[in-house]
Amino acid sequence: MSETALDLKIDGDIAHATFKTQNGLNVLSSRLLDLIDKMATQVKAAPHVRFLILGAEGKVFVAGANIKELSNLDATGAAELSNRGNRAFDAIADLPCITIARIHGAALGGGLEVAMACDFLVAVSSVKLGLPETSLGLVPGWKGMKRLSDRIGISTAKRIMFAADAVNGTEAHRLGLIDEIADDEAALDAAIEKLVTRCRRGGPHAISQIKQALKTGDETRAFAACFDHNESTDGISAFLEKRSASWME
To answer: Residue 6, SS3?
Structure first.
């Protein structure tokens, strides 16, 4: 079976990263984790990019980790793989731009973990989402426990993980795991476009400061940093002059 690849295309201020597997399901191998890390580095190096949309081709978003690769690990190798994935997914979470997971099919295990590294999850109602690692005698290895608990609460996250359960998109939306839900792929893209349009009102530098402050808890530093950037000068002037700020045009 061919390995899953990751294709990156930048169109204006929107980057599209797409998982692809020729004649197969998308799965997370150690090689793909490195490609995710590299992709995030490339997006971060493109300062004009305001949005990253992480999606996939095929029947699923990402089915999970490569089980054959896991079967050859000992505890040392498992720790190395966990650290490798954490670097990759944290690289997505730490991007200054807005990140959106476009989930058209199942996102299980590592597939849900990489999606939850994004700011927003947008999915079709028929998808299956879950962290079923306990059915293999394992636990999520790439901060999925923490990210799922942060999104839906510890008690509900425990029930999903302990039971190795999966929820559909409708239930995931009710729980707060999914931010926007759509009936099909056409509606999925429309929902993402609407979300992107809505978020264009916020200044890119200010948004990056919010993301950093939410991670570090230092809101004072973030507030002060805005006054060292010309974005705030433009934004305040635009308000006083009753015009749109430059990033809204």
So the answer is: strand
